[in-house]
Amino acid sequence: MKKTVVIYGSTTGTLQAIAENIAEKLGVEAIDVANLDSQVIADHDNLLLGTSTWGAGELQDDWYDGVNTLKDTGLAGKTVALFGTGDSESYPDTFNGALKELYDAVQAAGANVLEGVSADDYTFDDSEAVVDGKFVGLALDDVNESDKTEERIESWLQAIKPSL
């Protein structure tokens, strides 16, 4: 596996715990997006980016500066995988919508974005993060479907590891 880092934005700590779990499974570092700079990007070939979704599909607050750093630095030659959390019961129309915002930003910055997971086996009404029947990354609902979180992480990591 090439040099990989997990970068997360978390307000309540839920996504931080998930990011640290992912990083531990891969044997890599997890850093808060508030500490992201161009050197972190330059030092890594693979970036696993995680955000929680707020309100009507918005990014976690710290990601707004993080997205600017990604765009300003550029991601040409970098491999990116996305993961995020949302609440499918309280926000069924914007479930994990922040993933799409992050996806659009890394695409625009020139990243090679790894394929996401199937939207099957999820309960929600709509999500901008679903393209052609798949989320643009790993979508998690640790509020209403916490019993599926670990299995979803494991399955996703097995799918993306060959590309890292």
TrEMBL record:
Cofactor: FMN
Keywords linked to the UniProt accession: Electron transport, Flavoprotein, FMN, Transport
GO molecular function, one term: electron transfer activity
Pfam families according to UniProt: Flavodoxin_1 (PF00258)
Record flagged with keyword Flavoprotein: yes
Positions of the Flavodoxin-like domain: 4-161
Role this protein plays: Low-potential electron donor to a number of redox enzymes.
UniProt-listed PANTHER family: FLAVODOXIN 1, FLAVODOXIN 2
Name recorded for this polypeptide: Flavodoxin
UniProt organism field: Segatella bryantii
